[in-house]
Automatic annotation (TrEMBL):
InterPro entries named among the record's database cross-references: DIOX_N, IPNS-like_FE2OG_OXY, IPNS-like_sf, Oxoglu/Fe-dep_dioxygenase_dom, Plant_2OG-oxidoreductases
Position of the signal peptide: none
GO MF entries: L-ascorbic acid binding; metal ion binding; oxidoreductase activity
Organism: Linum tenue
Protein name: Fe2OG dioxygenase domain-containing protein
Keywords: Iron, Metal-binding, Oxidoreductase, Vitamin C
Residue ranges that the Swiss-Prot or TrEMBL entry lists as coiled coil: none
One Pfam family named in its UniProt record: 2OG-FeII_Oxy
PROSITE patterns: FE2OG_OXY (PS51471)
Domain Fe2OG dioxygenase: 198-299
Lineage start: Eukaryota, Viridiplantae, Streptophyta, Embryophyta, Tracheophyta
SUPFAM superfamilies assigned: Clavaminate synthase-like
Gene3D superfamilies hit by this protein: B-lactam Antibiotic, Isopenicillin N Synthase, Chain (2.60.120.330)
Amino acid sequence: MANSPSMKLTSVQELVKAAPPLSSIPLHFLQQTRIALSVPTPSSSAEIPTVDYTLLASPGSGETELQKLHSACKNWGIFQVVNHGMSPEVMEKLRGEIEEFYELPLEEKMKYGGDGEGYGGGRVRANGIRDWGDRLYITTNPVHLRRPNLLPQLPSSLRDNLETYIQTLKTLASGLLGSMEEALEMEANEMAAKMDDGLQSVAIIYYPPCPQPELVLGFTPHSDATCITILSQVNGVGGLQAKTRDGSWVPVNILPNALVVLVGDILEVFSNGLYESAEHRVTVNPDKERISMAFFVNPKLEAEIGPAASLVMKNPPCRFKTISTEQYFNNFFGRVLDRKTNLEALKIDN
């Protein structure tokens, strides 16, 4: 049980705040190798693609933007989206309210604690190493799966603005997935039917400053188990890095007010490998706290996860097994998060 991801975990924020100041990093946070905080390769200066959502949805210019989206999903698995409909004013209010939440005494935050959901810190990863970050994780859809001690009990202003954020991203996710379905030339509504009223959740993650950032990771290298993930860099402090197709780690320099979209493992399966999920990680800052939000978009529980029949017919062979969404997530949560091991387990050896 010592390395179980669902165990009650110590807050990293409280560790950093404690007196006397932290002079060395506890062993259970130390990575096996030093982290390359800057990547001295030609690809380190590469910028991830940017998609304009207004243009994507426009009948007059949508085709060009659709091809940009298609290329980004195939060649990167990650892109920025601008003109996405999320109000900067809502984001600014959320920033202040999230900062206030993480400034609450630990006993107040622990009221939102839970087993796998709610408030916690320092998640255990491969080899028993912990992430340098705390998080508040909440299931948001379907509504009947919401836990009564989480979103309904948050301070009212944070709750209301978070609801606005969730509803806006829900609409954005639906539009993006519709465009991806079109770009992949899937049968109409083949993917949308699985995603309608699907599982959705949000994670608000706090990464404290670290005196030796080259020795820890805020989030271990991984691909998301989702269909897509939409990320917001709440307080403007960077740290997200993406792994390119040549194996290099590059910093994701996020444009002001932009959101980042990640192709998840489920979308790679749906697309029969035409789109590849993005492996990514989070580094930490020696001087500044970093706050981010991740919105996870998944199929409904009764749906099956497998390659789209229309794509397998046009581009055989079938590269992945088909399993239920429920079994998929049971398998995922039964593993320690590590790179793309969850996806590897679904591959068919052709």
